[in-house]
Amino acid sequence: MQFQAIASYEQEAANHSEHSVKLATFVLINLLNCSKMTDLGKRIMACRKKKNLSQTDLAHQVGVSYAQIGRYETKGTQPPAEVLRKIADALDTTVDYLINGATDEKAKTTLKDSELLQQFKAIEQMTDDDKQVVKKLIDAFITKGRLKQLAL
Q1: 2-9+17-151 under CATH 3.40.50.12780, yes or no
Q2: Is 90 exceeded by the pLDDT of residue 116?
Q3: Residue-level pLDDT at 21
Q4: Which of 73, 87, 120, 151 could potentially form a cystine with 25 if both were Cys, beta carbons 3.0 to 4.6 Å apart?
Q5: So where are the chain's domains?
């Protein structure tokens, strides 16, 4: 059954190769961003605790509710740019640190292949239908790779 699905995805890839590459880039960027958002919340919480601030204390300084601070820290909710700047100021850090962490951590999450990065940017401009095609193709390639590893 999985081999049929892979064959179907590969046929779809042949039909939509240009769009597929763009969609794959879009999906990978979203995966990187999801990871960054989880880390953002952890960094906000760590900086807040280091300054011995409660969520309520930070919320008052930033101008949001304590519940919203909790969502930023634990639910992966992304604060608007202006709120993020206020959080960074209140915590005596930078927006860059909150988003990317230490310099070596930022390097790990940065794409080194400039052509791939350009493709990801192009995918962001695609229609939702084309993005779905790329997602399916990425899933197929990942599944294919895993099946090959299992066969070894």
Answers
A1: no
A2: no
A3: 57
A4: 120
A5: 2-9+17-151
| Longest distance between any two alpha carbons in the chain, whole Å | 57
Let me know: does 37 contact 73? Beta carbons within 8 Å: no
Which residue type is seen at 110?
Answer: T
Angstrom distance (rounded) from CA 20 to CA 137: 7
Helix axes 17-50, 114-123, angle to 10 degrees: 100
Classify residue 76 by burial, with Cβ atoms within 10 Å: 0-12, 13-18, 19+.
middle
User: How many other CB atoms are there within 10 angstroms of residue 106's CB atom?
Assistant: 14
Distance of alpha carbon 94 from alpha carbon 112, whole angstroms = 24
Token code pair at residue 27: 């999906």
Continuous segment of H or E residues that includes residue 148: helix 128-151
- Residue percentage of the chain with pLDDT more than 70: 66
CB 21 within 8 A of CB 113: no
d(CA 14, CA 111) in angstroms, rounded, equals: 26
Q: Find how far residue 77's CA is from the centre of its chain.
A: 12
Q: Which position has the token pair 């639910």?
A: 75
Separation of alpha carbons 90 and 64, rounded Å:
13
The more confident residue out of 75 and 28 is: 75
